Structures are given as structure tokens and as C-alpha cells.
Amino acid sequence: MKRTKLVLGLLAILLTVQIVLARIPKPEEGLGFRVGTERKVADMHQILSYFQKLAKASDRILIKEVGKTTMGNPFIVAIITSPENHKNLEKFRQYQQLLADPRKISDKEAEKIISEGKAVVMINCSIHASEIGASQMSMELAYNLATRNDKKTKEILDSVILLLLPMHNPDGIQMEADWYKKNLGSKYEGSQMPWLYHKYVGHDNNRDWYMFTQVESQLTIKVHNAWHPQIILDMHQMGSKGARIFVPPYVDPYEPNIDPILRQEVAMMGTFIATEMTAEGKTGVMHSIWFDAWTPARAYHHYHGGIRILTELASVKLATPITVKFEELDDYTKKPSVKMPLPWKGGKWTLRDIVDYDYCAAKAVLTNAARLRENWLRNFYRIHKKAVTRTNPPFAFVIPAEQRDFSTAIKMMKVLRMAGVEIHQAEESFWADGHQYPEGTYIVYLAQPYGGFAKALLENQDYPDIREYPGGPLKTPYDVVAHTLPLLMGVDVTRVEKTFKAKTELLSKMIKPEGKVEGVENVFGYMWAHNTNDELVALNRLVNKGYKVLWIAEPLEDNGKTYPSGMMIVNNKKGLLDDLQSIVKDLYVRFEGIEAKSNIKAYELKKVRLGLYKSWTASMDEGWTRWVLEQYEFPYQSVYNKDVRRGNLNQDFDVIIFPDLREEAIMNGIPEERIPPEYAGGIGDIGEKNLKEFVQGGGTIITLNSAAEFAMKRFYLTIENSVADVDRKDFFIPGSILKVLNDTTHPIAYGYERDGALFFRRSPIFAVKEGKSVVKYPVHNPLLSGWVTGEKYLYDKGAIVDVPSGKGKIILIGFPVLYRGQAHATFKYLFNSIYYGAAVLGSGHAN
Ligand SMILES: [Zn+2]
To answer: In angstroms, what is the span from residue 213 Cα to ligand 1's centroid?
Structure first.
């Protein structure tokens, strides 16, 4: 009897185990097709729903919603490890926190943690949503880790905690899947989507890893900072005719603040993946080409103790297979080399191939992490130990509280703090490098866990001289070469070389002081300065409420004080004081009551009917412009090709912005062979004619960066881009910060000082024969941060030109004025241009 019971009991246990396992659904059960099947793609909802089912069925997987995406969708992370580790998840997370900050533990305690802790791996799938393979693969990876019981899988589950982001850009996955399915079977199957795969920033969502402007960046940083992964696998796709997959090592240069241990780890992991893939018979696996490790915009992790392993797979047409003949392949991939000993022979290439390659790479990363668990943890600890015991100069960066734009200084410090950088504030005055700083000064000491991150972003970049061949042009960097936040944001920061002592407090948050309304009795109006972005937001709020606002166009004397041109005045009326009081609660603006009417020249501002040209070429700059306009409270409307073609633009708009687009893209767009007819073409000749009428009739066109070409050519301006035909060997500025000179008497440069700085990339340089150069390059090398070849081409040339035309204006802003939402110091050029574009210069008086 007892025996029967025992047998029955055992059977029951076995059955339960069976039932639990059987309940874990395969991806194809939910999807109705095998992952990677030709012309089939799982969308965001399907992937989300699959992970929810997996998490319910498996005690190895936990799903967390980190937050909502830009478009309000769930942004999830799947935490995958053994059931035993899941029980102690919080303990392992604490271990990571301790290893990341060696000030909190002894070496002996660290060794204990290293022997007990788990390697933490983060896998980020398909941040670029059209590179969709990894998001599809994530389901298969999770399923196998949830169900397999072989020795290798167990080893991974026991030694590794995997943070899997199945969709690093869920909104984009849904958009891409919808677009693909809509066009499936038509001539446009697999065509490029006519809008960005992130609401605002498209492909630049992977250039945001030190500014964290976008929600998805902030959510990822949240996961990262909670767990401090040692290894981050960032899965992408590239063109179709080269290698099948790129893995690190990267090529030179590395940004100098990245620890050498970490650089070796990148190389070790990259070649391990390459080895495993080649051993599994995967061909076309290549390392050590193209991708460098200079910009932190793509590599937050490199400053936080984690390696970023970039993989780039050869693409198909989303899920539609392609065929590449051997002779069509890029030459470099045809022969075996040190970088790629086993070339691909050409042929059919499918989404399933991408899934297989991605899976193989992910498995290799997890295997390496498991096998070398202790090495990963120990080196992670060593990197941070070096960081906190640093003694090399500089010792600190000092940020004065007295700033021209204090609210932006606060924003900059918030960005640093988001990345784990500690900021102190002086409680008494102190001396550093021979200067005295007052109480309240902010200090960033560099001997701290993420001091390298702070240093990289606060110092000026000196990009190394790496040539394509001796005497040849600079080898093209993979991305931009300057990322100095104080210059980009217009914040005053001082580098301090020698050690100093100060009585300080470690800040637990950044508090922005409130603004102020002063002199409230019997005033004619209120005046405020024009120096900061906050001050322009205040302007927007007042104008949008219907208040009359002026920019004084000459210096003003009031009550014994002199105010410079550009100061803003709002006329008093009932309710204004309440509105100002409410504005100063969240904007750092000081309104000052003025007593008398003033008989001076002033620009009368109005609520601008602002248009932003939106082409179907999916311009990232258009997206960034939308984002910045929304952040700074400028109402706008998108202007499409059909609107420009229809004409009568003065009826709806005062000012139209053309974001950074080539003339060809504006005029002709994408041809009908490549995109459905409703999205094909550009503004065309009729659009050009309508825009001319718009300007003749008093409208203003503002062009950003390369869009100047459109205005110069189509409006027959006698302004030339003096580097249009110059060879890269003679002139090359791959994303640098340059000095400029402002004409501060011109409204576009109101609020600026004479010397300014701007970000230059793929930009024109204006040789001006008509109009007014409001911002110019100096007659000496203007390089502040990054790299310049051929500085002489810039001497005395224009960077912003204001050209009166008919009753309207054309304003050429010849650089990325908003630059990925980072160039806070130059935002105001655009903001000013918008108001100036619709303003009237009154010869009367300021009332
Ligand atoms: Zn990519």
C-alpha cells in the first residue's frame, strides 16, 4: 500500500514536472510560424504576449515593465537565470552595486562577492527597428533558456543573470511590422518606411547614450544602473553585400577615458564570438573593421564597467529574402583574411539566417560570461577600483553657480547624475588652482566610479591624427568626434588640475531655483533678459496667451540702468502678474518691473504660425526639430509635400522651417519605384514656385544645415557654399565644435555674447554677397573640440545669414543648430529666427 502511494506520489511529481514543462509554449505556437520564416514577422504585440506567456510558465524567466515608451507602449526586460538565482535576485543585484563602488567594500569582501556573484549580461535587440532580426531571435533564445536542460544551458543559467530587452525600441518594431505587412505581396514589399522608426529621432536613438533625451534611453539607463551589467550585447544589422556579421574588436580610436582592461575585454569577447560562430560553420564572420569606439553617444557602457559588443548582421528586406551573387559582394569580403578567415560564398540570404547568426552570437556571449564568470566580476571590480583611486590630473571640474544660463547648467548636471556621476556643492568658499570659488559652487571630483564618464563629457576632445594612408586624408570616424557638454550646452565649467580641499555636500538631487518677479507696483510693463532657453520659453507662454511682447532693438535706459538690445518687454495688463508668478515657479527667469514707456525701436512679436517641412524621406533632423520645439513649447504644424504643392502658404504660415535635407530630397523626394505613390516625389517645381510666392508675400523660410543648398540654388541667392567642391583631403570636419563670432545687434543673435560656439557637421560655409552674416567664423583656427582639416576655408565666412527677399526673409542656419537635441547653446539661434521671421520692427515706442 505504502509502496503504491510512493509510486503514485512519484508519478504525480513527474507528471507535474511534465505539465510545467509542457506548458511552456514554443514561439511558433503563439505566432503561427517559426521564428525567422520568410516573409513573416512578429510584431510588438506578438513579442510582448509571447514573453508574458513564457514568464507565466517558466520559473527561469521574470518579466518587468520598466516603463512606457514614447508612444505609450510597455518597455519590458526579461530577467533570465536559474530558479535558484531568481530566489536571490536582490542579493546578486546588491553584489553588482558593491563591485561597482569599491569605496564601499574591502578587497577581501570583493573576493567573496566575486566567488559568489553572477556575471550580468544585457542583450539589447533591434534598437534600430528595421534591423528586426534580433527581436525575432529573442523569443527563441528565451524559449531555449527556459526549457533546455543540457549541461551548457545549465551552466549559463547558474552563472549568468541575463537582462534581455527583446525590443529595445518597441514602437519602432510595431511600425516596421505594420508597414511590412501592409505592403506584403505588392511591388513595395520590403520597401523603406516613409517615416522614422522612432517617433522623434529614428536611427539617432542609438546616439543618445550620454544625453538621454529620449524615454527609451532613460528606461535603458534605469535597468543598466540597477544592474551594472559587465557585458552588453547590442544587436544591429547593416548592408547586404559585405560580411555576414561584424563583431568587435573595434578599430582605433578608442575614446581615451575608456579603461584599457575594458578594451581588452571587448577584443576578447569579440574574437570568442567569431571563433564560436566559425566553429559552427557560420561563414562571413568578420572583426576589426569600420566601427570605432570614440563617441560615448553609442557606448554608455564603456564608462560604466561594461563592454559594449556591437553585432551587425547583413540585412534582408525586413523579412523578404535576398540573393547576392558572389561577384556582387564587396571585394574585401571575397578572400580569406585575418579579419575574416572563412568568407561567405554568396547566394540566398534570409531572415532565418539572421536569426541563426544572432542566436549563435548571443549563445557565445552567454557561454563566455558563464565560463569566465569570476574574471568578468574581478575585472569589473578592478576597473572601478582604478576609477575611485585615480590620482592623475585633472583632479576635478568646477561648475560655478553664477552662470549666464544657470537652468541649462542644472540640466547638464542632471544628465551627469543620471549616469551615476556624483556632484558635490561647496558649503564654504574654497581655493583651487589659484582661484577662489564661492560657497554654492558645484564640484565634480574625478576620483569616483564614473569619473571617466564625467571627464569624457566635460573636457575638450583632441581627436587623434589617423590617416587613411601616409599623407592621405583623415580616416573617416564612424560618427562625430566632439561631445563636450559645456560647449554644446553653453555652460561655464573650469577644469582644475591640482588637488584641493573644500567643505562640500554630496548632492542627492539637483534643485533648480525659482525665478522672480520684481518691482510690482504701478509698472508699465516687465522686462526680462534674452540669455537663456528658459527666458524664451517664458516668451512663448506669454505670446501664446495673447500678451504683447517686444524685443528692444537698441539699448534702453530705465531708472538709471542700461539694458542691451534684445531685452524682452511685456506690457502690463490685468492678470499678467499672476501669469508671471506662475511662470517663475518652473522657469528660472527674473522679471523686472519698468516704470516708464520707452520711445525706442523695438520688434513687435506675435504668435508665430510656424510650419515644419516634413518629407517622406524620414529625416531625423525633422524629428529632432519636432522634439525640441515641443520641449520648448513652440506650437507648430507639419508641412507636407502636398501642402507646399497646393500653395497659398501665407494663409496658414508665417515661418516655415526646412530641416537638414539635401536640395534633391526636398525637390524630388523618393521615386515611385521605391515607395508607394502617395509618398513619392518632393515639392517639385510647383512647390518651388509656391515657396517663392510665400516669401514674396512676407513669409520667412529658415533652412537648417545642408537645406541651405535648396534655398541658395532655387532662390538664386548670391551666396555660395565655399566648400561644396573641396576634396575631403583638403577640408574635413567630422562633427566638431567650432568658435564663431556673433553680431549681437542682430535679432537672430540676441542674447548671445560676441564669442560663441557651434557644432559643425556636413555643413556649408557661406561666402556671402547679399544679406547679412549674423554669425561668422573667425580668421584663425576656430577648433574648440574635435578635429578640423582645412580651417582656412572657414576664415571670415558666414554660419548664419539673413537674406531679405520680397516682403519676407530667407534665413540660412548653416550648421546642425539643434544637433540631436544636445546643442542647447545654439537652440536660441533657431528660436530667435522663428520670432524674428514674423516680427515687425516698430519705429514708435515700446508700448
Ligand atoms: Zn543599427
So the answer is: 19
